[in-house]
Design brief:
Distance between the termini: 102 Å
Number of helices: 9
Radius of gyration: 26 Å
Structural class: mainly alpha
Oligomer: single chain
Strand content: under 5%
Largest sheet: 2 strands, antiparallel
Shape: elongated
Length: about 180
């Protein structure tokens, strides 16, 4: 006798699993700060705390995840911002968390996807927001970056001004038997 009400309750609760999802639920975030504008086909936000530039800039991307996301933010700013807004809407997270995850994704998509899969299965949640942002790591990255830029800059400068590249070109042409 008591089994019938329990069966009826279970049947009612599982029958909604096959109902279609409302269109608005797909395109809005838990924070209601980000929404998809169907007329412009863009993700938008009206919240000033979630607009572009409200968290960290391209240098923050460079320190957190390296040159790939940094260059992506410089050369594809609109695409990057749309990806961040879409991530915010789907995950219901803040802009800084979405940016950090997007930077990690752009640096290495396979590792990022693997980490997210592990997190869903109960592994620790990686803090991409504070990745590589300790004062020691920022100092080491800055010194390393300045050293690399100086090395390649001086290599190119000396190659151009001292004619090392020109002499190499002429020598290669001689070896190939091409007359000037």
């Amino acid at each position: 006798m008591i089994a019938f009400p329990i069966q009826l309750l279970l049947l009612c609760s599982t029958s909604f699993a096959f109902a279609p999802i409302a269109n608005n639920a797909v395109f809005t975030s838990n924070l209601e700060a980000v929404r998809f504008d169907k007329t412009s086909n863009l993700w938008i936000t009206d919240d000033p705390e979630e607009k572009d530039g409200s968290s960290y800039g391209p240098i923050g991307s460079l320190y957190r995840a390296g040159p790939k996301p940094f260059l992506s933010r410089i050369f594809n700013a609109q695409t990057y911002d749309q990806a961040v807004l879409k991530y915010m809407a789907q995950d219901g997270c803040s802009r800084i968390e979405a940016q950090a995850n997007m930077d990690a994704f752009l640096e290495n998509p396979q590792d990022w996807a693997y980490q997210k899969t592990c997190e869903k299965n109960g592994a620790y949640v990686k803090d991409y927001v504070n990745a590589n942002m300790s004062p020691k790591q920022v100092t080491l990255s800055t010194v390393w970056g300045i050293g690399v830029v100086y090395f390649f800059g001086s290599l190119i400068y000396n190659g151009i001004t001292q004619g090392m590249l020109v002499g190499s070109f002429h020598r290669t042409m001689e070896l190939l038997g091409v007359d000037n």
